[in-house]
Amino acid sequence: MIAVVVGTRPEIIKMAPVILELQERGLDFTFVHTGQHHDYEMSKIFIEELGLPEPHYSFVLRGESPGEQIGEMIIHLDKVAKVKKPDVVAVQGDTNSMVAAAIAALKVGADVAHVEAGLRSYDWRMPEEHNRRMIDHISKYLFAPTEEAKRNLEEEHVYGEIYVTGNTIIDALDRYLSVAEERSREVLESIPFDEFGLVTFHRAENVDDPQTLKDFVRILERSPIPLVYPVHPRTRKRLFEFGLWEKVKEIKHVKLMEPLGYLEFIGVLKESLIVLSDSGGLQEEVTHPKIRKHILVLRTSTERPEAVKAGFAFVVGTNPVVVLSTLERVLEEKPQLPETSPFGDGKASRRIVDVLEGAG
Ligand code: UD1
Ligand code: UDP
Predict the structure, then answer these.
(1) Which residues participate in catalysis according to the annotation?
(2) Could you give all domains of the chain from N- to C-terminal order, each with its CATH number?
(3) Which residue, 101, 179, 228, 249, shows the most beta carbons closer than 10 Å to its own?
(4) What does the alpha-carbon distance between residue 225 and residue 339 come to, in Å, rounded to a whole number?
């Protein structure tokens, strides 16, 4: 039996094609949501919109710190594993939920299957970098999205078997992009600009630092183009805490939004001129053949160098002078973009389920 664990927004989105593939093949699986992301617009909306089954198990976490939450999640997942006795537990990416799920699985004797294995930012400030390394080294099945990710794993002599599959985000866009065009009409009509850049910003090492968050607000203030900005709950909290929320609200050329559902979000993404973001997933989404946008990565490192090499992504950090001058240059020069994505051909979930089917 296969268990699939999710806990945050990007995991639901990126595991959706795997879950639907399992369902379409009639395979028996248990679907678990850890409760790390709990707001409707950070969790349930995706389960509904993407046509996923209700999770068989989901939890409410009481702790707030990463350690407390990881501990609680392990206890919950251990109980589920004792009842369901999965042969293999599939996790995705690099969040605290996924570390908890991988540890819980290993400790009950299940095999861990890691979707999106082998990414490395070599930036030890990032909790995600710790998480990726831990998960990769206790996984039996490692689904690397690219050859470069596979090489990272080989260099670290991981224990498990490596499969290069592509990234399931490309499968998700293939599945949902045409319906998104229809479903995002309303949100697009609410945007008062003809042309705009799309902004997201939530990385802990960025938004928990008052100076970096101030720099980000300055970027918004001085942007040469209007911006659409759905605000992540972590960032909203920090903007309030650091006394920056009112300032952001007053910027006339920035349209603030609640976090958007996936169908709305990718509809807006498709219509945007350019993306400014510190998101991991967005660095992949901009490379989809039907999206093809430039992204300024508001970070000093990336674990997705494939997007940089292919010409989609520019790692610019958060210094307003650097970000704004690069923004102007890219908008003016419009550097050419390839027709294909470095993150796969949209068949990653099939390849992954081929392996899971044999394992579970
Ligand atoms: C987490 C992941 C990050 C991922 C991101 C996706 C870790 C270490 N980080 O970051 O890798 O990119 O999810 O969005 O696992 N909050 C709410 N409601 C929610 C969720 C969060 O209010 O539904 C607020 C809470 O104040 C919470 C804070 O955001 O304390 C941070 O949430 P958390 O899940 O710890 O990390 P993210 O920043 O969301
Ligand atoms: N996303 C969304 N609504 C939003 C912002 C992002 O549906 O308001 C989607 C986006 O399309 C991508 C995923 O959320 O698939 C990225 O999640 P996030 O940036 O939170 O996490 P990361 O990828 O950085 O781990």
Answers:
(1) 202
(2) 2-167+345-359 (3.40.50.2000), 182-333 (3.40.50.2000)
(3) 101
(4) 26
Cα–ligand 1 centroid distance for 49 (angstroms): 20
Q: Residue 96 CA: which ligand is closest?
A: 1
Q: Residue for token digits 């920090």?
A: 238
| Ligand 2, atom nearest to 46 Cα | 7
d(CA 41, ligand 2 centre) in Å: 11
Check if 146 has its Cβ closer than 6 Å to any atom of ligand 2: no
For residue 82, give Cα distances in angstroms to 17, 79, 110, 138. Answer: 27, 5, 10, 19
Residue 94 CA: which ligand 2 atom is closest?
A: 25
Q: What is the pLDDT of residues 257-309, one digit of tens each?
A: 999 999 999 999 999 999 999 999 999 999 999 999 999 999 999 999 999 99
Asked if the model's pLDDT at residue 245 lies above 80, the reply is: yes
Sheet with strand 313-315: strands edge to edge: 254-257, 227-230, 197-200, 274-277, 295-297, 313-315
Neighbours of 217 (CB within 10 A): 20
Tell me, yes or no, if the pTM score tops 0.90.
yes
Give the model's pLDDT for residue 301.
98
216, HSE (Cβ side, Cα atoms, 13 Å): 31
Closest CA to 346 of 180, 181, 172: 172
Distances (CA, A) of 12 to 5, 54, 77, 231: 9, 12, 17, 19
Instruction: Note the ligand closest to the C-alpha atom of 207.
Output: 1
Q: In angstroms, how far is the first alpha carbon of the chain from the final one?
A: 5
Protein residue whose Cα sits closest to atom 38 of ligand 1: 234
341 Cα–ligand 2 center, Å? 18
Which residue is listed with tokens 């520019």? 314
**Which of the listed residues 129, 282, 285, 290 should we mutate to test ligand 2's pocket, taking the one with most ligand atoms within 8 A of CB?**
282
